[in-house]
Amino acid sequence: MRKTDLIRVVWTGQALEPDGNFAMHQLHDRLGAGEVINVDLDPERSEKSHKHQFAFVRTAWQNLPEALKNAPYAKNAETLRKHALIATGFCDTEMLAVGCPRRAERSAAAMSRLATRMSGYAVTEVQGTVAYCHTPLSQNQRAMGARAFQESKQAVLEWLADLIGVSPDQLANAGRKEAA
Fold first, then answer.
1. Mean pLDDT of all residues in the chain?
2. Half-sphere exposure at residue 131, Cβ-oriented, CA atoms within 13 angstroms
3. How far apart are CA 110 and CA 126, in angstroms?
């Protein structure tokens, strides 16, 4: 949906009402009395919140312990964010059962290459004869609504804070300073 299709409304506890005169005029211009429409109930998320997450991820990446600097997810802040999404369960998982541990290893390698090309980052694992490939969920506005974004942001914040040995509040505050 394009931004111009959106009309800001407020829930009063009994009905959705236009938020101000501009919204009221938009509704009068585009709808007739008694016309039925569908409403997308996914609340807006702020650009400020989005920028804050990227700032605290960057801060965490810059402060990774020396022992983690060569980890596959430590290449840059973006791979760290994607890894954190997977580690906290905000991911898609594909499973391939192949009946043989060696075949599962080869399948996992192939799945990893393809998934990395498509998503930019993937984590694969083999358990016996089954290969699993995890890819992070997209956090863009179209793919992830405000509530899911806030849940994923909080989970990523807590995971990263634990990874670098600080409290979530300390990491969040450092991110706010960088985003400002």
1. 89
2. 21
3. 12
CB 61 within 8 A of CB 84: no
Place of tokens 């990395």: 116
What residues does 110 pair with on adjacent strands? Answer: none
In the chain, where does DSSP find H-type helix? 21-30, 47-62, 77-87, 101-119, 146-164, 168-179
- Confidence class for position 1, pLDDT limits 50, 70, 90: very low
CA distance 40 to 69: 43
156-163: which pairs have CB atoms within 8 A and are 24 or more residues apart?
A: 156/53, 156/57, 156/81, 156/84, 156/85, 156/88, 156/90, 157/53, 157/56, 158/88, 159/84, 159/87, 159/88, 160/56, 160/57, 160/60, 160/80, 160/84, 161/60, 163/60, 163/64, 163/68, 163/84
pLDDT in tens, 78-116: 999 999 999 999 999 999 999 999 999 999 999 999 999
pLDDT tens digits for range 20-33? 888 888 888 888 88
